[in-house]
Amino acid sequence: MNNVKRCLVLFVIMSLTLVPNTACPLETVRVAVLPFEVHSVKDLAYMQAEIAGIIKKHLKQDGAVVVDLDLKPELRGAIAAGVDGIRNLGAKSGADYIVWGSITWIGQQFSMDAKMIETFGEAPPNIFFVEGKSIETLLGTVKELTDKIGMKIFKREKVAEVLIKGNKRIESDAILKIIKTAPGDIMLAKSLSDDLKAVYSMGYFDDIRIEAEDGTDGKIITFRIKEKPNVRKVRLEGNSHIDDENIQEVLA
Length: 252
Prior knowledge:
By secondary structure, this protein is an alpha/beta fold. Helix content is about 35%, strand content about 25%. It has eight helices and nine strands. Strand 8 and strand 9 form a beta hairpin.
């Protein structure tokens, strides 16, 4: 087994003991989220803090430590100073990353642009973009934006393909119906752990191992299984009052 596969198998086994539904970064990640600018004909100033609050909530659920900034004059000055000012603010607050952005409303439709920089680095900001068609889609769209940000912060990778190997009697499609991880999903230890338990619960397998390999479009996840042996023959002993044929009919 190569290093990549071995690490992922260990990664999944360790995840069985984890409780939080997170990507479990090796080190604590501290993130600060600035209020979002709002561009709209209507007065939607309340969204400045609301959008930032939703992003903070999701990042915290994913395992990040959210750094709250309560320095309003300094915030305005940092944003006005551009990337260097924001990076300096992050350094002062102890945040590893700072996220900021804006939402633009045109009629009922909206778009969100977000940027993220690593405080103690020199790389240009990562840029993210999402859009929605109505106020009803706002929460889901902010979650989509946060997922994109999280992929960068937590170094997450997408699942490109899910394969079943080692099965002889149980069809792959039947197993795949039990597995919730699907192509396009973010690869999470908790999700793979849940899938492992679900496949075991089918009752047909003695051993299941999850492996991951790099693919062109992301990780290729393989469920390598070992089926329980077939019952080839049942031998009856000690039955003095009931015919073997009658017992065999009940067992069948």
